[in-house]
Amino acid sequence: MPMVKPRARSTQVVIGCTLAAALLVAGCGGSDSGSAATTTKRPHPTTTTSQPAGDTKPAAITVEVNNMKFAPADVTVKAGDTVTWHFADKAPHTVQGIGDKAMGLNSPIIDKGDWSYTFTVAGTYRYLCSLHPEMRGTITVQ
User: Fold this and answer.
1) What is the DSSP letter of 102?
2) DSSP line for 5-42
3) How confident is the model at residue 39 (pLDDT cuts 50, 70, 90)?
4) What domains appear along the chain, each with residue ranges and CATH number?
5) For 108, which DSSP code?
6) What is the pLDDT of residue 45?
7) Mean pLDDT for the chain overall
8) Which residues contact 60 (CB under 8 A, 6 or more apart)?
């Protein structure tokens, strides 16, 4: 049986608990149909996908988390698009929604890797890194 490093195991436990809590909270929601969150660990895409005019496929947009900032900090997407935050900084970070509208934006603490969120409801979603509150961003969903 392979040995699991203590830090890797604790990260798995934190991610598992966070996912379980998110599923529990999502199941307890009211009549407001918010956005669905997905957490993924996958290789970073080499390009950001933009859809040609007239194409109805959802777009995949990447926000880089590096040098203690979100880049780009302000993103505009269409309802149904997925935004992926790619964490590649020296310090761990989070994506934490600000205000009622952005309550679903709640990533685990991530050192390296990706976290994605699919926006299904139009509006403005402000967020920050809960560990570094000066790091802020906005997603505008049309």
Assistant:
1) G
2) PHHHHHHHHHHHHHHHHHHHHHHT--S---PEEE----
3) very low
4) 34-141 (2.60.40.420)
5) P
6) 41
7) 76
8) 45, 48, 49, 81, 82, 84
